[in-house]
Automatic annotation (TrEMBL), chain A:
GO terms for biological process: protein transport to vacuole involved in ubiquitin-dependent protein catabolic process via the multivesicular body sorting pathway. GO terms for molecular function: DNA binding; protein homodimerization activity; structural molecule activity. InterPro entries: ESCRT-II_cplx_Vps25-sub, ESCRT-II_cplx_Vps25-sub_N, WH-like_DNA-bd_sf, WH_DNA-bd_sf. This is Winged helix DNA-binding domain-containing protein. Gene3D superfamilies: Winged helix' DNA-binding domain. Chain C. Domain 1, Winged helix-like DNA-binding domain superfamily/Winged helix DNA-binding domain. It comes from Suhomyces tanzawaensis NRRL Y-17324. It comes from the Eukaryota.
TrEMBL record, chain B:
Keywords: Cytoplasm, Endosome, Metal-binding, Protein transport, Transport, Zinc, Zinc-finger. GO terms for biological process: protein transport to vacuole involved in ubiquitin-dependent protein catabolic process via the multivesicular body sorting pathway. Residues 159-181 are annotated as: Disordered. One of its GO terms (molecular function) is phosphatidylinositol-3-phosphate binding. One of its GO terms (cellular component) is ESCRT II complex. Component of the endosomal sorting complex required for transport II (ESCRT-II). Belongs to the VPS36 family. Residues 11-281 form the GLUE N-terminal domain. It comes from Suhomyces tanzawaensis NRRL Y-17324. This is Vacuolar protein-sorting-associated protein 36. It is found in: Cytoplasm; Endosome. InterPro entries: GLUE_dom (IPR021648), PH-like_dom_sf (IPR011993), Snf8/Vps36 (IPR040608), Vps36 (IPR037855), Vps36-NZF-N (IPR031558), WH-like_DNA-bd_sf (IPR036388), WH_DNA-bd_sf (IPR036390), Znf_RanBP2 (IPR001876). It comes from the Eukaryota. Component of the ESCRT-II complex (endosomal sorting complex required for transport II), which is required for multivesicular body (MVB) formation and sorting of endosomal cargo proteins into MVBs.
């Protein structure tokens, strides 16, 4: 169980919520915002957000996502980031910093993954866990990988978003030739083999 | 050859440079730009003047020197005629003068008498009456025409008598015993004051005693009849020259108006002759002069070029009348102008009130048409700016504001009659600032084209530093207030929303602070935003400006320091309040006595300690001070 995220001081600076006309300042402003978003997500272990900035999934099962303080709002100073600026911030995260990605590029409205930990880092964590637990070469289900109780899954990986896990497997481990995905009859992922 | 220059008489002039008219005299016509000629020659120094035609005189008033003015009695005039202008020669009126001199005057005055055959009234006839050419005279009593033969006889009789004696048969045959007042014709003895015989109407010899007569004549001669030396008339050539040997003068109408003059002159002359006739008694009491029918305005004069010309002339005449009348009014106004100016400046002190400034800039005393006008104006404006507008380092004023303020200043200092400057003149003057190296500099914002003026010595390209400093001050003040509110534990809706966070500054706040116009602030803020030193917060309640916190590292927290300052200030305030309460208590004993041992104004030791204590406890201590209110 974690404590509430303390926003940086700049979060209470009213001009942060208005897109600055000066390009240099706007750049700094975006950096501030992306930093806030990443820190916020890392703090609550949130791996995906909706396009409006509402948390979609957190590894921390004890969290009630609805009660978390919103990222883009500040009730104290009565400021909210407007939709347009939100889009700018998200685009900045995705395209400039590569710290986020659409969950489904064909359907952006589904939301985005926030890579406060990069895919490679995730894959390393996963690989080292499987390696340490001596399960290399065995076929494991998704459930066994992340959600199985009393299996010694490190906190980092526990309750990792299934979609993100598949993305990590597909985009990193399979490309490296270190994993295989086995499909069942229904066309769903039946198991994963990491070698 | 006798000189006829003595027909000109001097005149009296009043202070407003108009001739003083004699009794029963009135103006008929006035015309400007007229020159005088005696005979063929110009009269020197009388070539540019006004001519007043009155019912008694023709008065020439010299425009250049009023002392050169002179007049001509209409009594001395026989007739007048127009000489049309030709090429460069102006139209003139030739005025024939009666041949003066004793002899001719007597002859012209002499009259022969013929007796009407019907009513036996003694009619008079001029001595030189021309029987061949003139129609025969009628008896003034019964109106029967005289008989030609009878008249000839009378004339011939007189002629022969004249030849014989060399003197007039009538006047020059006085009998020794005849009294002066006895009628030479009918021997009736008249009253000495009569000029004509009461019975037969014959002209009587003057009955005035000789001494009196001499006296009058000497007076008259000294007043009017003096020769030319009184008025000092000089001709172009020393000799007077007249065509046909008859004396005349000419009026040269350099600007026209001769026909009207001629018309009125003839009327006046007729009037005088009529009066003369009346005085001679040659007219019946009920006799009326045959009035020449008033000329109808000749509107339908047929077609052709002549008709058109006539119409044009009439049009010009009407225009002339209208113009003259209207210009009269204008002249009246101009006449009153000085008075109006005085009046308006007399109100100035009420407008100004006591707000008379220490610096007084002398008004600009240069004509607008002068080539130096704009330079002088530029200097004057610059002086005004330096003295009144650009008093601070951060002072800036827009050209629009300057225009309004400068003109208002002119009115305030010089009264309502001041000529204000036009925007065009202002712009010209502003352009000259650099050229004249004046202490004021003008600057144009590229984006909006706004022109602002600032002091050259303190000129900076942007006013960024002022704005940044101001925002910083505001923020510091806000923090201080916030801490103060916290320390004092005040909590209500207003305070909570007011001190929730620093709301930034608006353009109007900045404008107020520096006395800039809104436009200037906007321009400057935009520059700052472009430079990245100021960031903006645009929300539903407006646009607010902040110092840039994105790039600058978060400054260290001054909260503790602020708390200390707040404590100190609160303590000071408290001391002031309690000491004033104490004095109030001492002066009026009506205050409730809180306790015999309680001393106002004495700060308890716990206060001193409390400065270092945490604020929460501090505020509770303050609350303990009952009866005190903090604002």
């Amino acid at each position: 169980m974690s404590t509430a995220f303390s926003f940086p001081k700049i979060h209470s600076f009213p001009p942060l919520y208005t897109k600055q006309p000066n390009a240099t300042i706007a750049q700094h402003q975006l950096e501030s915002w992306t930093q806030i978003v990443l820190e916020y997500c890392a703090h609550y272990k949130i791996t995906s957000l909706s396009l409006a900035g509402v948390p979609r999934y957190s590894q921390d099962q004890s969290l009630d996502l609805d009660t978390l303080p919103p990222i883009f709002d500040n009730k104290e100073i009565e400021r909210t980031v407007n939709e347009e600026f939100k889009t700018t911030i998200i685009n900045h995260l995705i395209h400039k910093l590569h710290k986020a990605d659409y969950i489904n590029p064909k359907n952006p409205s589904l939301g985005i993954f926030i890579y406060w930990r990069s895919l490679t880092e995730w894959s390393d964590l996963l690989y080292s866990y499987v390696d340490k637990s001596g399960q290399l070469g065995t076929i494991l289900t998704i459930y066994e990988l992340t959600k199985l109780e009393d299996a010694g899954i490190p906190d980092n990986l526990k309750y990792l978003d299934e979609e993100l896990l598949i993305k990590v497997l597909k985009e990193v481990l399979i490309k490296k030739g270190k994993a295989q995905i086995l499909m069942n009859e229904d066309g769903e992922i039946g198991g994963v083999k990491i070698v | 050859m006798t000189s006829h220059l003595n027909i000109w008489k001097p005149i009296l002039i009043n202070r407003s440079n108009r001739p003083i008219l004699v009794e029963n005299e009135h103006n008929l016509y006035i015309r400007d730009n007229i020159g005088l000629y005696q005979g063929k020659l110009k009269i020197l120094h009388r070539q540019n003047g006004r001519v007043y035609l009155t019912n008694k005189r023709i008065i020439y008033f010299d425009n250049t020197n009023g002392a050169n003015s002179l007049a001509l009695d209409l009594k001395d005039v026989t007739r007048s005629e127009i000489i049309d202008g030709f090429l460069r020669s102006s139209p003139k009126i030739r005025i024939m003068i009666k041949v003066s001199g004793e002899e001719s005057a007597q002859i012209s005055n002499k009259r022969l008498v013929w007796t009407c055959k019907i009513c036996s009234f003694n009619n008079q006839i001029a001595l030189n009456f021309d029987l061949e050419n003139n129609s025969l005279p009628k008896c003034t009593s019964c109106g029967i025409t005289a008989n030609m033969g009878q008249l000839r006889k009378v004339l011939e009789e007189f002629g022969s008598a004249d030849e014989e004696s060399g003197t007039s048969s009538i006047e020059q045959t006085p009998e020794p015993d005849r009294r002066d007042d006895q009628c030479p014709t009918c021997t009736f003895i008249n009253h000495p004051s009569m000029t004509n015989c009461e019975l037969c109407g014959t002209e009587l010899k003057s009955t005035i005693p000789k001494t009196l007569k001499n006296k009058i004549s000497s007076q008259v001669s000294s007043g009017y009849n003096s020769p030319t030396n009184g008025i000092n008339i000089k001709l172009e050539n020393d000799l007077e020259q007249y065509t046909n040997g008859k004396p005349y003068v000419k009026l040269s109408f350099r600007k026209g108006g001769e026909s009207k003059f001629q018309e009125l002159l003839i009327q006046a002359l007729d009037e005088i002759k009529w009066e003369a006739l009346k005085q001679k008694g040659a007219i019946n009491q009920n006799g009326t002069k045959l009035e020449t029918p008033a000329k109808q305005p000749q509107k339908q004069l047929g077609g052709g070029i002549f008709g058109l010309e006539k119409i044009g002339e009439q049009q010009r005449k009407t225009n002339e009348i209208i113009l003259r009348d209207s210009v009269d009014d204008l002249e009246q106004l101009m006449f009153r102008f000085q008075d109006l100016m005085k009046l308006s400046t007399s109100f100035t002190k009420f407008i100004n009130g006591k707000k008379s400034s220490e610096v007084i800039i002398p008004p600009l005393a240069i004509s607008k048409t002068s080539s130096l006008y704009h330079q002088e104006l530029s200097r004057h404006i610059s002086e005004y700016l330096v003295s009144f507008e650009l008093t601070k380092r951060s002072s800036v004023v827009t050209s629009q504001d300057l225009y309004a303020k400068y003109n208002r200043y002119l009115v305030l200092t010089q009264g309502f009659g001041t000529e204000l400057i036009s925007p065009l003149d202002l712009n010209r003057a502003l352009e000259l600032f650099d050229e004249l190296n004046l202490p004021v500099i003008s600057k144009k914002y590229e984006k909006s084209g706004l022109v602002v003026l600032s002091s050259r010595s303190s000129h900076v390209n942007t006013y960024e530093e002022f704005i940044l400093k101001f925002i910083q001050e505001k923020e510091d003040q806000f923090r201080f207030e916030k801490v103060k509110v916290e320390v004092m534990g005040i909590s209500n809706g207003f305070v909570n929303s007011e001190y929730a966070y620093f709301k930034g500054v608006t353009i109007s706040e900045i404008s107020d602070k520096f006395g800039w116009s809104y436009n200037i602030t906007q321009e400057e803020i935009e520059t700052c935003v472009e430079n990245g030193t100021i960031v903006l917060d645009h929300n539903i309640s407006g646009t607010f400006y902040f110092n840039n916190r994105f790039t600058n590292a978060d400054e260290e927290d001054h909260t503790e320091e602020l708390r200390a300052r707040v404590h100190k200030q609160i303590l000071d305030e408290q001391n002031v309040i309690s000491s004033s309460l104490k004095t109030e208590y001492q002066t009026s004993q009506n205050l409730i006595n809180l306790g015999p041992s309680y001393e106002f104004g004495v700060v308890e030791t716990s206060h001193q300690e409390s400065t270092t204590e945490p604020p929460v406890r501090r505020s509770s201590v303050l609350h303990a001070l009952e009866g005190l209110e903090f604002n």
